[in-house]
Amino acid sequence: MAQRILLHIGAVKTGSSALQSALVRNRDWLRSQGVLYPSDASDADAQALKITSGNGMKLASALNPNLPFAKGYNAENAFNEAVHHATQTPEHTVLYSSEQMSFLDPGKLQEFNDVCQASGIELKVIFFFRNITEHAYSSYNQMVKRHLCTDSFGEFAKTRYFSRFAAITNGVTGVLGVPGFIAVNYDNVKSAIFGNFMRAIGIDPDGSEEMEERVNRSLSRIELEVMRVVNKSMTSEVDSKFVSDAIIYNNPEKRTEAAISEEERDFLVQKFRGQVNEVNGVLGAEVLTLISDDVSVAEADAVSLSEAESAYASMFSALYKRLLEMSKPPKKA
């Protein structure tokens, strides 16, 4: 019988897809260490280093039934099912992973904790924090890459970026206490994310397979500018994703860099300093910071497309849209 259920809940843009690939690839090793990572329909994609949502989507739906995908998971009995599963396994820990669990309702987390405690099982949450400037830039990258965003980073930072770090910290610790919330600084562990994850949950990673490949890489600065032009002509996130995936998979190991202007950096520091202090005060340690050495300060227009590059991007968008129109079946007379 398991002694604890562990929920890895993100945060968003902290290497979750890479970690989930490593968890699937190390499943047998994990069991030898007393950790069960339950199988999921997404395992094949994780094995192939594709972007996944992990094995915790059903629990995410139970922890917040208002999430847009929740109704598709029939999660009414997810807490009881997870606990029953834990009582039937010889491993001491059952591990679930999904960034979507970070949108949990603290009241639902309390329900889950009550079900766990009734069976003598400890419930814990592990959460990766990422410094504000790097998290903001990575979030921007994702919006351009997947969600038709055409904003500059400065526009995005001032109007669309927000951090839920304090809300998540207060929500989880309010139910499980600080000891039930394993807080990890992503910036300190990202170079060997799987091994450091295992250390954070109290297991020596010796003998495991660390992730060497990259999963869900960011767009480079010039690629971002191309996608901003492309997105102006796109009407579907599916089509935008098709283009950005083509860019990424053409060079999956490309090293990317992040750069923001001094004004953008100062804006983020001023806006989020209070939240950073709040999180660190609750946890009694500096797990969240404001500025990253991995984000350079550059002139706002340091990277821009030439007229020819912009024209090529616009031309591609127009051709792609035309091909989509031609592929549709003709309307009935």
Topology (SSEs and partners):
Layout: E1 4-8, H1 16-25, H2 27-32, E2 35-36, H3 43-47, H4 57-63, H5 78-88, E3 93-97, H6 106-118, E4 122-129, H7 132-146, H8 153-159, H9 165-176, E5 181-185, H10 186-189, H11 193-200, H12 221-233, H13 237-250, E6 258-260, H14 262-283, E7 295-297, H15 307-327
Parallel strand pairs: 1-3, 1-4, 2-3, 4-5, 6-7
Helix pairs in contact: 6-9, 9-14, 12-13, 12-15
Your description of this structure?
By secondary structure, this protein is of the alpha/beta class. The protein has 2 domains: 4-131 and 163-200, Rossmann fold (3-Layer(aba) Sandwich), CATH 3.40.50; 221-327, no CATH class. Helix content is 50%, strand content 9%. It has helices at 16-25, 27-32, 43-47, 57-63, 78-88, 106-118, 132-146, 153-159, 165-176, 186-189, 193-200, 221-233, 237-250, 262-283, 307-327; strands at residues 4-8, 35-36, 93-97, 122-129, 181-185, 258-260, 295-297. The relative contact order is 0.14.
Question: TL;DR of this structure?
Answer:
The chain is built from 15 helices and seven strands. With 333 residues, the protein is α/β, with parallel strands linked by helices.
